[in-house]
């Protein structure tokens, strides 16, 4: 099995450190990784002895959204295994030669203050790259804190790689030279959903519901904007924001949705807030559709069951049933690495993010944060038939998007289900990167 070096817990940040060693062997022409049990040693003694590049994952690893944090950890861990399997990041001898990537975990407990405490601990521990994404409000406070830190302590600067915080403001008004986003932001995702909603001529009414924080607010705002522009015939019959991570019983919300007569629900909810919402809707007999950002996993398909067939729509940077042999091999290799059904939530964008980091370090020829950031601005990565490029103007990654509709495993286009639920997502629309991109208002200070 992989060698994990546990270094203990950090007070106030609960940081569990893990050194990532080789557990993956790339096969020619595809990303088909060997089972973890086949890789028992570091790629080379030289890499093993080299000073590692430290990455710090700051996420909810406890509390109501712990499952989302653990899903992120698995994805990033796996991506780093791939880099270390090929010898780590390749640097010249003058910069210390090849160096492995090391991942350390810091539990934010879903709280911004805990995330800031974790950031301070990570920097004190020597982290050069901060990873976070499962909250746009947390991402915003981290951007501000990192901006101030990097100005005050230029010898201890850090990069911030964001894989899921999709409030558009983060690469617009709050854009930063130190921050790079690898997920499509909310406006991009909404535009992709509109590709499907535009063709649903029977749709005449929708209910908008979301989590009451910056991202949830942005989703509802953009939904109204794009509906008015592209489907003015569709009435918004309800609009609601609810506390994030604190609602245990969504039945009252589900009753209001059903009573409104809405033919569809549009929501950016994620984690338990989505699973509980769709389950409550099923329980009260709601028969409308769900247009979602994250309805393709973390319990949502199993929660809604047969009622979601043909009715739950999800948008993502990639879905397991995206056509193509390389994509299929990529997904099967993840399931080999993490075979438990509850661990089945793979994100292509997180794999591309780690590849972009490795590429940028190698192009910079060092781990100097400014040099790496400059190279990251032109990152261009490919993996398993997918890929993308970083837009230097606002540090928003540009990639294709996929929209899928829920169906039973085995139905046409649904070879793979999710989480052993028996339900998967048939890809009904693939949007090229050039079409998925959106304008920006970033005015960035560069270094």
UniProtKB/TrEMBL annotation:
Record bears the keyword Transcription: no
CDD domains with a match to the protein in the record: PBP1_SBP-like
Keyword rRNA processing (UniProt): no
Membrane spanning stretches: none
Signal peptide: 1-39
Keywords annotated in UniProt: Signal
Annotated Leucine-binding protein domain residues: 52-410
Family: Belongs to the leucine-binding protein family.
Name of the protein described by the UniProt record: Amino acid/amide ABC transporter substrate-binding protein (HAAT family)
């Amino acid at each position: 099995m992989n060698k994990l070096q546990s270094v203990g817990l950090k007070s106030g940040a609960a940081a569990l450190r893990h050194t990532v060693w080789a557990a993956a062997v790339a096969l020619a022409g595809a990303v088909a990784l060997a089972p973890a049990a086949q890789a028992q040693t570091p790629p080379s003694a030289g890499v093993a002895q080299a000073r590692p590049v430290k990455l710090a994952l700051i996420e909810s690893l406890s509390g109501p959204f712990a499952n989302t944090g653990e899903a992120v950890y698995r994805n990033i861990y796996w991506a780093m295994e791939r880099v270390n399997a090929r010898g780590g990041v390749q640097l010249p001898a003058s910069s210390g030669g090849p160096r492995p990537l090391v991942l350390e975990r810091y539990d934010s407990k879903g709280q911004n203050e805990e995330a800031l405490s974790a950031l301070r601990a990570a920097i004190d521990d020597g982290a050069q790259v901060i990873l976070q994404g499962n909250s746009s409000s947390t991402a915003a406070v981290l951007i501000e804190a990192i901006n101030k830190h990097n100005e005050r302590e230029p010898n201890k600067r850090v990069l911030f790689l964001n894989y899921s915080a999709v409030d558009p403001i983060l690469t617009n008004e709050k854009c930063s030279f130190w921050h790079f986003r690898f997920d499509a932001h909310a406006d991009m995702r909404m535009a992709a959903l509109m590709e499907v909603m535009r063709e649903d001529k029977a749709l005449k009414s929708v209910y908008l519901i979301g989590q009451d924080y910056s991202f949830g607010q942005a989703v509802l705002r953009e939904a109204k904007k794009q509906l008015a522009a592209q489907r003015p015939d569709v009435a918004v019959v309800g609009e609601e924001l609810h506390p994030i991570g604190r609602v245990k019983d969504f039945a009252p919300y589900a009753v209001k949705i059903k009573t409104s007569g809405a033919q569809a629900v549009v929501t950016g909810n994620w984690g338990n807030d989505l699973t509980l919402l769709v389950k409550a809707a099923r329980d009260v007999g709601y028969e409308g559709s769900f247009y979602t950002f994250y309805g393709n996993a973390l319990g949502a398909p199993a929660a809604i069951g047969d009622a979601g067939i043909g009715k739950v729509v999800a948008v993502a940077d990639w879905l397991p049933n995206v056509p193509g042999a390389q994509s299929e091999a990529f997904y099967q290799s993840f399931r080999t690495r993490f075979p438990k059904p509850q661990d089945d939530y793979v994100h292509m964008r997180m794999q591309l993010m780690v590849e972009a980091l490795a590429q940028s370090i190698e192009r910079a020829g060092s781990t100097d944060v400014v040099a790496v950031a400059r190279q990251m601005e032109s990152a261009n990565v490919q993996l398993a038939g997918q890929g993308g490029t970083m837009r230097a103007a606002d540090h928003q990654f540009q990639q294709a998007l996929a929209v899928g509709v829920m169906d039973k495993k085995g139905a046409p286009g649904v070879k793979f289900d999710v989480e052993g639920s028996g339900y998967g997502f048939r890809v009904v629309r693939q949007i090229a990167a050039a079409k998925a991109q959106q304008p920006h208002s970033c005015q960035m200070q560069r270094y």
